[in-house]
Amino acid sequence: MAGTGTASNTSTVDFFRELRDRLGQNAVDDSRSAVETYGRTAMPSAPRPSGVVRPQSRDEVIDCLKLANEHRKPLYPISGGKNWGLGSACPTTDGQVVMDLSGMTRILEVNEQLGYAVIEPGVTQGQLFQYLQDNQIDLWMDATGAGPDATIVGNLMERGYGHSPNGDRFHNSCAFEVVLADGSVIETGWAHHPNSQVSNLFKTGIGPSIDGLFTQSNLGVVTRATIWLIPKPQAFKAYVFRIKSDEELAAVVDALRPLRSLGVINSVVHLANDYRVISGHHQFPYDRFSGEDPLPEAARAELRKAMGLGHWNALGAFYGTKDSVQGSCRAMRKALRGITKPIFIDDAKLQWFDRAYRIAKWIPAVQRLNDSVTSARSAIALLKGKPVHDHLAGSGWRSRKAWQDQPTDPLDRGDGIIWLTPLVPLTGDACQQFLSCVEPIFAEFGFEPLLTFVMISGRVMCCPTTICYDRSSDVESLRAKECYRRLLSVCTEQGFLPYRCGIQSMSTLLQTNTNGSTISKLKHTLDPLQIIAPGRYQSIH
Amino acid sequence: MAGTGTASNTSTVDFFRELRDRLGQNAVDDSRSAVETYGRTAMPSAPRPSGVVRPQSRDEVIDCLKLANEHRKPLYPISGGKNWGLGSACPTTDGQVVMDLSGMTRILEVNEQLGYAVIEPGVTQGQLFQYLQDNQIDLWMDATGAGPDATIVGNLMERGYGHSPNGDRFHNSCAFEVVLADGSVIETGWAHHPNSQVSNLFKTGIGPSIDGLFTQSNLGVVTRATIWLIPKPQAFKAYVFRIKSDEELAAVVDALRPLRSLGVINSVVHLANDYRVISGHHQFPYDRFSGEDPLPEAARAELRKAMGLGHWNALGAFYGTKDSVQGSCRAMRKALRGITKPIFIDDAKLQWFDRAYRIAKWIPAVQRLNDSVTSARSAIALLKGKPVHDHLAGSGWRSRKAWQDQPTDPLDRGDGIIWLTPLVPLTGDACQQFLSCVEPIFAEFGFEPLLTFVMISGRVMCCPTTICYDRSSDVESLRAKECYRRLLSVCTEQGFLPYRCGIQSMSTLLQTNTNGSTISKLKHTLDPLQIIAPGRYQSIH
For the CA atoms of chain B, what is the radius of gyration? Predict the structure, then answer.
């Protein structure tokens, strides 16, 4: 089996039998349907796993790893497998056994005073949100747009970003419990210390900080993590604003940079282009256009107008006290003066607006405002840490299957998406340069660019770049694949490097990485038989 | 040589000769005076280095490491060696050769737009500050109280904390250039990529995040790092306030926690006890008391009154725009209502106050305010990123040598200090529990507790705990050593674990650390001959 670096010394059948003996019949599945389910991705093609094992506890994870070492079989850990557009649950190479941790769903502790939750890898965004609600805990969690069924640890291990002040998920986490390939267990930071009062409060212990080693990694299996939550703020105000053009976008980025660097803007700002927003509410009009070319500009403008969108659309929020939020709103308004005008929205305003709208919807200005408010409403829930399904709709933009209900998993509908995550310096110039790199490529391959600039810090943005395509069409699938290849190659060439990547690019991107050989050495030390996810964020030859 | 894990296979003389051949006569010094200078610490006793080598560039660092491998001699890298109270420049075990990087003083790039500086390990706080001034760059750096001569990278590698919004130095750094023990070079994050636009803007690349490995570590030698700076804020207001008692301190901590968690307080807050502040301006009155017992309460109260201090004294600042700072000030005032009243100070107010004071100093309220302002003035410079010598004075509290000028290096005066850095949960209860642990130990050993609670995040404080003693007195030195041992043991037992530690405790603290064996494995992989700083943040047997 080329590429996995693992010599199988027993048959896969033996391995599955022993896994069944140890974990029970129901914990193991190598049926055709399991292989198909876990091999599903939103990408044009992907490797095929050989089956799945579902440990329910850390000790069962240890059992799996020990057996895998004995049988020299690779195990590919996933939390929930909702890594759509980057490989979902699918292993990096053919024949790996998926180790599905989604059954490990314990919320081990929530500390309201100090703002943290200790969770297992199967805990979903929806589950933690509900737990906080049910127990009337005045903490807000950070949520991503991946919906209630996506796990938190899965995204954390990818070093993903949400929307709140704790949007940098890796930075806002600690105390990883990690099972190493040999079955030994370590706990990062001070979490291993029996008397520690600070395990869940501080990322590092004494000596080298090692938790970063287990993110975007195949060096261990994280079976527990602490994530930090914010206290329910006294005041919360979301802001939305429209941006008319790329030039105006550049001006906005430059105007907001100092506020973001100083923490006046204390959470992640999302700047989504029209297509990204439209895709959440509409599908490509295949009844009017073939899809071989991107949607004509006139149709794009029509949809934009109907939805009351700008060419770019900003979304974010301030979290604090009444005074601090008021101060921040003023600072933002002034910074944007002469460019655009932010609209601030809080719960009171939404309620007031609902009442006013019923009376005054015949006034054009009120109607226009309603369009903005409507498209922002579920986004605001997200900003407050409520995971919602709505944002998954976008993956069906190029699907030919109509949808009635909100999808809970884009794979169920067979949506086609490929994701890139380039990093772009936080300057207007860099934005424009990035757009002039990627937009012509989308056009060339006949796709609409679905783009978001996410101000993850005061220096850099990540730019989730989505290729939506009709996965039922071989022609579109092929074009999507080529489009991805070109986008990645041009972005890499131009220095807009990704912050994470899909399973199809891990080996390639790490081959040119001079850190790669150090990481390979560490892998060889910690996992000499290449048991854990060979090829995951690793260069394989 | 027990403890170093290194078998010397040539004589030290040969090693020094070859170092001289390679780097030049002046780069190497194994004279008695060099050994003494580099072996100086503020602690009661310490190991003895065997000499020093001073590479001037990355390539010379590589040369040193290659020779050290050939000769199997340990090299102990230091940036500037100003790690007072934790070991200064002194190696962890006898006989190591100090590799002094203080000659690598290049500031390779400062980017005003994106707020970063690329520096070598010898760049001092004072040097970078002066560079920003001389080049009229509108960026503020983060400064610690260690003064202008302390290096930035040295503190960063210890994961130290400063005062500004970028006070968490490790979090606000990236793109480490690291020479590994075998002489190979890696660059963390995307810094290795030739076309990268984001090397200096984002901490991680693709795959495992490894820069944490090289902090509090002996796994490599960092020869370049990028540190992040903040734009000069439109508005800046420092705040100071007095806290009357430990109970009031507890209330303050609980009141400020939500503001810190939400980022309304967007920088590090320092809460120093009276002794910590007094020690910066006075010395122990050995003319009145023997020093066998702590200063009597009456004398303490007298000094506190003379300096207009509270039992605890808060210092911090808001950085932002006029509006946001105003909002934050209001939020803080309200949060502290009924407990204490913060005084907000900016440059305009200082100037205004100077004028008013000249006219109205006969008014008691003005006089009292002046005391607060005076003691805050140099602290405010620090908050604005200006490193000042003033804060080093405290190390001489128990010195019997009177000082005229501000010391620039406590070692020159032979000051005795031992530092502990326990972490304390950010709750009033934990503060009180911590105080009830450590204060009786100071009393028992006849020392004054010099304590600061530093709100480094919304969940945890670090508590720099200083034992000041008269290093010229064998009796006091012995008591200080015992006092340290007890403090560390009780703090560890009670779960107030340190965020860094002195060279005398590294091995012990890591022996009880279950991550220790993993780190040892990594060390063995990257540095099989134990060349780099054996025993530094490593358990040795």
Answer: 23
User: What are B513's two structure tokens?
Assistant: 């650390």
- By C-alpha distance, the chain A residue nearest B198 is A425
The string of pLDDT tens digits covering residues A424-467 is 999 999 999 999 999 999 999 999 999 999 999 999 999 999 99
Evaluate whether A71 touches A10 at the Cβ level (below 8 Å): yes
Question: Can you tell me the ipTM of this complex?
Answer: 0.95
| Rounded Cα–Cα distance for residues B200 and B202 (Å) | 6
Amino acid type, A116: Y
Put simply, the answer to whether B210 touches A209 (Cβ < 8 Å) is no
Does A342 touch chain B if contact means CB atoms closer than 8 Å?
no
Report CA dihedral (B230, B231, B237, B238) to the nearest 10 degrees.
30
Among A427, A418, A416, CA closest to A496: A427
Could you tell me which of A291, A476, A312 has the C-alpha nearest to residue A299?
A291
CB contact under 8 A, A515 and B330: no
Tens digits of residue pLDDT in B396-438: 999 998 766 666 788 988 999 999 999 999 999 999 999 999 9
Q: Kind of pairing, strands A185-187 and A173-179?
A: antiparallel
Kindly report, residue by residue over B117-127, the tens digit of the pLDDT. Answer: 999 999 999 99
Apex B256 CA angle, B255 and B262, nearest 5: 125
Q: Is B440 on the interface with A (CB under 8 A)?
A: no
Gap between the Cα atoms of B162 and B454, Å rounded: 10
Distance from B222 to chain A by nearest Cα, in Å? 13
CA distance A366 to chain B (A): 29
Q: Are β-strands B28-29 and B423-425 bridged in parallel, bridged antiparallel, or unpaired?
A: unpaired
By C-alpha distance, the chain A residue nearest B424 is A198
pLDDT at position A23: 97
Locate A33 and state its tokens: 């349907």
* Nearest CB to B323; choose among A193, A321, A334: A334
Please report the residues numbered 120 through 139 in chain A whose beta carbons come closer than 8 angstroms to any beta carbon of chain B: none
A213 CB-near residues (< 8 Å, 6+ apart): A219, A220, A522, B208, B209, B210, B212, B213
Determine contact: A334 vs chain B, CB below 8 A: yes
Cβ atoms B376, B315 nearer than 8 A: yes
Q: How far apart are CA B341 and CA A456, in angstroms?
A: 35
Mean pLDDT of chain A, nearest integer: 93
Q: Report residue B301 as tokens.
A: 């109260």
Backbone angles phi, psi at A527, to 5 degrees: -150, 70
Handedness of CA A499, A504, A506, A508 (dihedral sign): negative
Cα–Cα distance, A55 to A406 (Å, whole number)? 30
With vertex at residue A60, the alpha carbon angle to CA A57 and CA A62, rounded to the nearest 5 degrees, is 115
Angle formed by the axes of helices B364-383 and B347-360, to 10°? 150
Beta carbons within 10 angstroms of residue A351's beta carbon: 10
Cβ A72 vs Cβ A7: under 8 Å? yes
For the whole prediction, is pTM greater than 0.90? yes
List, for residues A85-126, the tens digit of each pLDDT value: 999 999 999 999 999 999 999 999 999 999 999 999 999 999
B489 touches chain A (CB under 8 A): no
Residue A287 is encoded by which pair of tokens? Answer: 């009844």
Closest residue to A187, CB basis, from B326, B328, B514: B514
Cβ <8 Å between B210 and A518: yes
Q: Give every CB contact of residue A70 below 8 A, 6+ residues apart in sequence.
A: A10, A18
**Is A424 an 8 Å CB contact of chain B?**
yes
Q: Which two tokens stand for residue A166?
A: 């704790």
- Which tokens is B184 given? 């190979």
B197–A497 C-beta distance less than 8 A: yes
What distance in Å separates the CA atoms of residue B480 and residue B499, rounded to the nearest whole number? 21
Which residue of chain A comes nearest to B434, CA vs CA?
Answer: A197
